[in-house]
Amino acid sequence: MTPPTAQDTSAGELPLQQLDRVVIRFAGDSGDGMQVTGNQFTRTSALFGNDLATLPDFPAEIRAPVGTRPGVSGFQLQFSSSDIHTPGDQPDVLVAMNPAALMVNVNALKKGGIVIVNTDAFKATDLKKAKCDTNPLEDGTLDGFRVIEVGINSRVSEALADSPLSNKDKQRCKNFYTLGLMYWVYSRPLEPTLEWLEEKFKGKDDLIAANQTALKAGYNAGDIRELFQGQYEVPKATLQSGTYRNVMGNQALAIGLVAGAKLAGLKPVYCSYPITPASSVLEFLAGYKNHGVVTIQSEDEIAAICSAIGASFAGSLGMTGTSGPGMALKGEAMGLAISTELPLVIVDVQRAGPSTGMPTKVEQSDLLSSIFGRNGDAPMPVVAISKPSDAFELTIDACRIAVQYMTPVILLSDNFIANGAEPWSLPDLDSLEPFPVEFTAEKGEDFQSFGRDEKLARPWVKPGTPGMEFRIGGLEKAPSSNISYDPDNHQAMTDIRHQKVRNVADSIPTPEVDGADSGDLLVLGWGSTVGILRQAVDNARAKGQSVSRIHLTHVWPLPHGLDEIFSRFKSVIVPEMNVAQMTYLLRGELPDHDYIPFNKVTGQPFLVAEVEAEIKRVLDERAGA
Amino acid sequence: MTDIAQPALTKKDFASDQEVRWCPGCGDYAILNALQKHMAESGADPAKTVFVSGIGCSSRFPYYMNTYGFHTIHGRAPAVATGVKVANPDLDVWIVTGDGDSLSIGGNHLAHILRRNLDVNILMFNNEIYGLTKGQYSPTSPVGTKKKSTPMGSVDRPFEPAQFAVGSQATFVARTIDQDMKHMSKILKAAAAHKGTSFIEILQNCVIFNKDFYATTVEKKVRPDRTVDLTAGEPMIYGADRDKGLRFNGFTVERCAAEEADVWRPDTPSHAPTVLIAGMRDDPEMPVPVGILRAVEAPVYETGVNAQVEDAIATKGAGDLKELVYDGEIWTVD
Prior knowledge:
The complex is a heterodimer of chains A (about 625) and B (about 325).
Chain A: E1 17-18, E2 21-29, H1 34-48, E3 51-57, E4 72-80, E5 93-96, H2 99-105, E6 114-118, H3 124-129, E7 146-150, H4 152-159, H5 167-171, H6 174-185, H7 191-200, H8 205-223, E8 232-233, E9 242-248, H9 249-264, E10 268-272, H10 279-286, E11 294-297, H11 301-313, E12 317-322, H12 324-340, E13 344-350, H13 367-372, E14 382-384, H14 388-404, E15 408-414, H15 415-419, E16 421-425, E17 471-473, H16 487-503, E18 519-526, H17 530-542, E19 547-552, E20 554-556, H18 562-566, E21 569-576, H19 581-589, E22 595-599, H20 608-624
Parallel strand pairs in A: 1-8, 2-5, 5-6, 6-7, 10-11, 10-12, 12-13, 13-15, 14-15, 18-19, 18-21, 21-22
Antiparallel strand pairs in A: 2-4, 3-4, 9-16, 14-20
Helix pairs in contact in A: 1-6, 6-8, 7-8, 9-10, 9-14, 11-12, 17-20
Chain B: H1 27-41, E1 49-53, E2 68-71, H2 77-87, E3 92-98, H3 99-105, H4 107-116, E4 121-126, E5 129-130, E6 136-137, H5 161-167, E7 172-177, H6 181-193, E8 198-203, H7 223-226, E9 227-230, E10 237-238, E11 244-249, E12 252-257, H8 272-278, E13 288-295, H9 301-316, H10 321-325, E14 330-333
Parallel strand pairs in B: 1-2, 1-3, 3-4, 4-8, 7-8, 9-13
Antiparallel strand pairs in B: 5-6, 7-13, 10-11, 11-12
Helix pairs in contact in B: 1-6, 2-4, 2-9, 3-4
């Protein structure tokens, strides 16, 4: 984008300047309301008609000590008048509510970018809390940036002089003052947030009035050109025609679970133990009870999956959701669902590991454990969501696979998708294809509880059905469902369980290649890297490089046709936020290709620039070789 | 539906075609027998009956019942049963577990199913030993139990199952004996009638690894003098000659003459009497209490969970998927 020259102090008052895209990062204490500020800016921009992508970045601690670096909470969003796929590599604008927020984020800021600092939070004690030996406003830290100094605390106090709120409560309106300032700078309407405040604080008129006043005061401070020389405008994006809403990954996933159960004709029973960043799936579903959704907040991760299995045994669609450590705890029960061949959807919103890891940071490191991480040969299909706007569709597909193949299915998401938001082009619900479950209610001549259909799925008999009583369990069983230790039977059952999961590939499409269908390099991704990889490959192609891209949504079994696609490229780069797990999988499954792992595990998504650089490095290396 | 009356089912109708594989002389046979008899006598519908178990000798139980059955994983039967019962409250769900399955690996789930008061019956076979893993001490074994993994004797204090249960807010707690068919049947009937989680500890003889652990307490020969059978509303009297009694004295239970015995009340607002009575186990001078140790009413979990769904539908109307998807702030691009 063009550098924001409108903030050149020597330029005088400038006219409205148009920009194609802007990346803003709001950063403050975790108690400063930065997530609310970011979400409001996002919502307003979505309603305005921009394309957008967001990256919330907050600490796991609910309130780390005030003013310290570990307590910094950030929210980055990119909004644009053209099609964008990522929250942006580098912010154009950083809003820093205190020295800690400034120091944690200033290195990410684009050269020449704007920093808006709350100077009231740069007193000696504030600097000490942030472990700053010198004042970053004075020591050259901000050289090369355009710094807008605003005493937000005092401005909020002035604006709210007549408010009956306590001084402490008045200061809690700081984020809306800041939001108001940014609304002015980027020509956003105030109405959506003014209305939201009325809804949010319904019945608390003082809070509504104070926050609305703070928001307007911030806006007016811009409007009288007291702080800024000019305003920007990011026109509406030319999104594909359709009906849109802004959606976060976990919400779209929750709606997808409701839809999946409806299309299967089953009662959804979602059992979960709260864990970051999966908890909001449970919370959303608990709000959908009028859709027939039953939710159980279980006593632990193991109970959650076991209750979901019990629900499926009883003829409902059992579902559970968790994140990494919870997946480890659920392992044994996943084996039970595999052995008893019951449908089940297991949501894993991945986060950085191992162990507790970094609960609020993104990683894709549960891939191989999802595919293989259980005792015994225990195969299970794995579907991976790429972005909030495809969560709905892929969640439905996970439900379909579960009931059509009588198998548990893992649905992988991650923290970037779960809490990220983007416009969702709403599907035509009439076009969704139902997959109604038919329970077996009568024993034909050859009925066996573990008999097989053409897909190798077994019949689903619902307890309560007269004359069909049977027993199942985790012990190896004969097709009759009776316990069997027969060596040939175990071999046969193991083979069938594997083949059944392999057969899922017959029901999923071969992913399309984005770009030329042959060339030097294919970039293969899965999960939440999709937007970044798309942007990086688009940029590389614009530079004339021979690069195409493919993205997997079904990571186990792998879709048919990949071998043939890969054979048309000299090399396949596999960028992942883990230590080369997909590369490892591909080398085992489709060994005849040149895979180049490209990995990052910082808890932050790839930057577009990083991927572009890797593409260039590989192409140069291949050209030189 | 037809009007022709179905012939009543017999005990045999509840036996599956599977060969029972417990050790000869195992107390489990008597319990299986009692259950099948109970099912027939209570007019149970095999199609609507589900036995859920964990892992251990006792947990093979579902395979031998001609009903629906789910042999799950170690300690997790209460969690699986919670899903079954919430998904379909019409099913009559029985959990079969042992002292290790329920109080060691599955202690958490036992506590929570009792607290939630799911309408199921839990049969906890207590033989104070691990049988299927060949004879290690269990969380109900007395201190000093010398077994293969504790050659110098166990050092940890055992759980008293009834105390664990009422501590978890159990609404029905009973204890019975594998050898006493009549008593077992009476308790099963009362448990089945109870609305909420019924927790039944069945003292069960493991003839291989803990033979006759109850020889000095509930064994038939010594039972009258060493066991007190508690019945609601009746004085706590025991002894071959019915001459011994029990009464509360502050926070203790003491022996007394039969005519001075207190009346047993399993439904007091506080569960303290159950805790005190169950605690007699630690005192070799006191009788082992059997019978109904606690019976109170409380709301049932699956009823509450499903009622919320119904309430939500009644207030908001049955959800249409379109309302969920096309919710919030929508905009259209032409």
